[in-house]
Amino acid sequence: MNEHYPFVNPPLPYAYDALEPFIDKKTMELHHDRHLQTYVNNLNNTLKDYPQLHSSTLEQLLYNADKLPTAIQKSVKNNGGGVYNHIFFFNGLSNSDTRSQAGSLYTAIIGQFGSVDRFYEEFKKQALSVFGSGYAWLVLDENGILKIVTSANQDTPIVKNECPIATIDVWEHAYYLKHYNDRSAYIDDWFRVANWERANKLYEKCLSDNLR
Ligand code: MN
């Protein structure tokens, strides 16, 4: 994806049907080609008349959203967040089983939550607790503590200086075609296709960024 305006919708790093049977092809097509594309289009439309923002990265726009011209603050938060969150979510899925490749993140999860099962139980509880639309995240906070947090709508944890490691999109559009209203089954399936190798790389990057 472009670092700055005009933002583009990057292709998925795997085939639309790569996550079957856990996440179905049609959901991935609609989610990527329509939902994410709409956020990209809306973000570009919002920024069109603000050339002074055309060299800002997505992270800079989100991080400084409250300092942007009032007329576009909300749209940048919603649509910029939609772009950021979706790309992060899609890049965090994998068609191969990466559960044994979590490296030092695995050790840190055991240290923080006691066991993978306890971690998952807590992650699932938080993901189920999102009222309406939003996300659940595994993040590293400023003090180097692993935390599970939730965000509403298209808010992102980066604005709270929480470094994202893994996320699940729990908007209904992410699962309704296959799982109907059963968010719990979708979360179980997400856990199976979450890319724990990538999550570990992000965890190590978050740790080293914290030391700067
Ligand atoms: Mn979504």
What would your notes on this structure say?
The chain has 212 residues and is mostly helical. Helix content is 50%, strand content 10%. The chain has helices at 25-47, 58-63, 70-91, 103-113, 116-129, 176-179, 183-193, 196-210, and strands at residues 134-140, 146-152, 163-169. The chain has a three-stranded antiparallel sheet, sandwiched between helices. The longest helix has 23 residues, at 25-47. The protein is globular, with a radius of gyration of 17 Å. The two termini are 26 Å apart. The mean pLDDT is 96.
Helices, strands, pairings?
Layout: H1 25-47, H2 58-63, H3 70-91, H4 103-113, H5 116-129, E1 134-140, E2 146-152, E3 163-169, H6 176-179, H7 183-193, H8 196-210
Antiparallel strand pairs: 1-2, 1-3
Bound molecules: manganese (II) ion.
The site of manganese (II) ion has 7 residues, from α1.
Brief overview:
The protein contains 8 helices and 3 strands. The chain is mainly alpha-helical and 212 residues long.
